[in-house]
Amino acid sequence: MAQKIAYQGEPGANSNIACMRMFPELESVPCASFEDAFELVSGGAADLAMIPIENSIAGRVADIHVLLPQSRLQIVGEYFLPIHFDLLGIPGSTIEAATEVHSHLHALGQCRRLIRSAGLRPVIAGDTAGSAREVRDWNDPTKLSLAPPLAAQLYGLDVLASAVEDDPSNTTRFVVLAREKPLPARDVLSGPAVTSFVFRVRNVPSALFKALGGFATNGVNMTRLESYMVGNEFAATMFMADVEGHPEDLPLSLALEELEFFTTEVRILGVYPAAEYRSGQTASR
Predict the structure, then answer these.
(1) For residue 189, how many other CB atoms are within 10 A of its CB?
(2) pLDDT of residue 206
(3) pLDDT reported for residue 233
(4) CA atoms lying within 13 Å on the CB side of residue 133
(5) Does residue 172 carry a catalytic annotation?
(6) Whole-angstrom Cα distance, residue 38 to residue 20?
(7) How far apart are CA 104 and CA 122, in angstroms?
(8) What is the pTM for the complete model shown?
């Protein structure tokens, strides 16, 4: 049986592209929601899930900071995808004759210059690739879509303008999730590694400062730190962090040991190879 990787969105979405580029040998399975993608993996219907976690322009992906720890899945990899949008329409349509452009809220926000210069009215859709499918189904030359390049091929649309994003450095980081298993030993991950974890600090003065002190004194580079509230308790704050290194590396081992003194909970979400993108190598379009 062919292995499968689940993603949120419709065929042609950026998550679909990330799946195809990192795992071209796997069957990509679209899901309506992140929860559905998590469930396919936890239930054994899919082997992996490709989930966006943060964008270089829009910041963290909404709800992931809560859903990911609750999923009880394990991060086993990461992928950085440069984000590109094309302006798509049904065959024979033109920018001059169009009046509306449909796409996800973030895509519309990341292509403001084109929308303004073309005099189009932005209309929010649930998904970038889904907006391309809708434009095909409407068969209306006045309605256009902002979607990834793959969507034009899948839905038979004309590319009226390509790479229309305002910022060419726009990049989304994805994490690859699998069912929980023992964390890989250091000798298995011989190269650069990333450790992701969540923790809750004690509700005392300077708790966060003290909790993070061990990473500074041991020279551990923290590449991501985000806070979020737990339930309805304003005093209960969780933090999600990524650091360079493996828990078996002495500096990180000491930092995590010190972290335990100032927290009520620490849980490692995954230990996995650092993507080549982190060393300055980016994927081509």
Answers:
(1) 17
(2) 85
(3) 62
(4) 13
(5) yes
(6) 18
(7) 10
(8) 0.90
**Residue 278 is which amino acid?**
R
Per-residue model confidence (pLDDT) at position 229: 76
- How open is the CA angle 256-268-227, to the nearest 5 degrees? 85
> Which residue of the set 34, 128, 172, 262 is catalytic?
172
Report the distance separating Cα 107 and Cα 125, nearest Å: 10
Regions of the chain where pLDDT drops below 70: 1-2, 231-236, 281-285
Percentage of residues in the chain having pLDDT higher than 70: 95
Q: How far is CA 73 from the centre of its chain?
A: 15
Cα gap 72→86, rounded to integer Å? 36
117 burial level (CB within 10 Å; 0-12, 13-18, 19+): exposed
pLDDT of residue 232: 63
Q: Is the distance from CB of 159 to CB of 95 less than 8 angstroms?
A: no
pLDDT of the residue at 285: 38
Residues 82/174, Cβ–Cβ less than 8 Å: no
Through-space distance between the first and last CA atoms of the chain, rounded to whole angstroms: 31
Q: Which of 85, 174, 197, 215 is catalytic?
A: 174
